[in-house]
Amino acid sequence: MRRGDPVSETYAPAVSDFFDAVEVFFEHLAAVQWTALGIALLFHVARLVVRTFAWRTILAAAYPETRVPWPGVFGAYVAGVGVNAIFPARAGDLVKLMLVHRRIEGAHYPTLGATLLVETLFDFVVAVLLFVWALQLGVLPGLDVLPDLPSIDFSWMVRHPRLAAIVAGCVFVSLAILSWWGIHRVRAFWQEVGQGLAILRDRGRFFSGVVTWQLLSWVFRLGSAYYFLKAFAIPANLENALLVLVVQGLSTMMPFTPGGAGTEQGLIAYVFRDEAGTAELLSFSVGMKIAIIVVNAALGFAAIGIMLRTFRWRRAVRSEEGLAENP
Q1: Are 274 and 9 in contact (CB under 8 A)?
Q2: Which of 227, 286, 242 is nearest to 39 (CA)?
Q3: 17 lies in a domain?
Q4: Fewest CB atoms within 10 A around its CB: which of 82, 221, 301, 309?
Q5: DSSP 3-state helix, strand, coil percentages of the chain (rounded to 5)?
Q6: How far apart are the two ends of the chain, measured CA to CA in Å?
Q7: How far apart, in whole angstroms, are the C-alpha atoms of residue 325 and residue 327?
């Protein structure tokens, strides 16, 4: 069967949610190629490291007269990644901002938040290109298939398009009102945001100090996906590794679950349905997710413990918010 053909009978979902898929993974644990898994995780860690170089460049451009220590940037970044691996709704981004705020003298949260936006610009371009490429291959599920995929946590939008349109409209109106209020009432806020975008006014520095590191991070991410495929005996080639990246990007579009858990498993089961059986695909998708979560959480909470001398990051975030409101 070619990629893009109608769903075969073997694709009938074997599990109803992510936790059932975890059970399938442990049943196939003995078949894992541990050397390939270790290489995949090394690529993953290398990806995180080079991304911190890019973020530090953005921060240094925003605060040119202030020392921006790389260890503090690295600790804040991996701490945020670790929290995002366990908690939904991008809670880790608050941790990133709070920790790096403590390491840069005179830093302001609007400026730091803008640097995170800049840090995602190149990723957005690459993700769109990969998504268009995947659409051309015809491997992604259509709207008529999404509701039937296992653990797709945004399938309610397909089942209730009117309600989804109403929600989207409310969000758009709210953002428009907030933007109008911000432009007219809080000029200082927008000045600080503009400070965080300073790197974009120096194209040479942006490409040499940001894009190059992020491009390397995508190379490492591709290598990680390739060796994850090998570790779980799924056909490993460039096309399949790129498709893993597409699936990972789609699964984090709506972060209702930590790291898109559940959504990623449903998409992988569909996209790779002609490459392996459902049980093998579930073992691969869950095994990859568990391995990444464990590494991210270990690095992240080690960084939190070192930088805050406590693992109670939510209390620290609330304390930091209180100081920001009442300096």
Answers
A1: no
A2: 227
A3: no
A4: 309
A5: 75, 0, 25
A6: 64
A7: 6
What pLDDT was estimated at residue 4? 45
Domain range enclosing 134: 37-325
| 212: Cβ contacts below 8 Å, ≥ 6 apart | none
Top-ranked range on mean pLDDT: pick from 90-94, 105-109, 209-213: 209-213
**Angle at 303 (CA atoms; ends 206, 41), nearest 5 degrees:** 75
Give domain status of residue 6, yes or no: no
Asked if residue 20 belongs to a domain, the reply is no
Cα distance between residue 315 and residue 200, in whole Å: 34
Q: What is the pTM of this model?
A: 0.76
Distance CA 42, CA 287 (A): 16
Q: Return the SS3 of 208.
A: helix
Per-residue pLDDT, 250: 80
pLDDT of residue 62: 93
The count of structural domains within the chain is: 1
Q: Report the C-alpha gap between 213 and 101 in whole angstroms.
A: 23
Distance CA 244, CA 229 (A): 9
Q: What is the pLDDT of residues 263-273, one digit of tens each?
A: 677 788 888 88
- Count of residues in the chain: 327
